[in-house]
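#structure-requests
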Amino acid sequence: VEAENGEEAINKYEEVNGNIDVAVLDIMMPLKDGLEVCKYLRAKSSKIGIIMLTAKTQEMDKVTGLLVGADDYVTKPFSPSELMARVDAVYRRVSIMNENEKTAVANPDLTTVGDFSLDYRDRILYKNGSPIELTQIEFQLLDYLFKNPDVTLSRSDILNKVWGDGYFVDDKV
């Protein structure tokens, strides 16, 4: 899908119901600039890869582009082969993220965090799809950590939850 300006880019995104894997945006597009389009796309979906391709080379321009939601930033002049490699890299990340989400929906017994998926039915950990057998304690520990993402857990909380109250655990555990 190709657009001459930011408004057209947004309209075309809506026409295909957001079915775009990677968007390459120029910051200096007419009507709506690439930053506005990037913010719009990112607000609509975290599943789309966004690359800023622009003549703006200042560090602050790059930082702003990344902060508003771009996954990568390429400055002009650029090598077409480098741009294609970056598009491929962003597409791979987006595809993995989308595949992990589909797997989680298809298997409600599976919880995914990053490259890891914990299968509650079979009590197996997967890293990038490869199974890793777990002991009961390892499974309980990962279960507790997976259920508390972005939470700082104290050592005593982890020990009490995984090993249980009153269970003696060596200081080095």
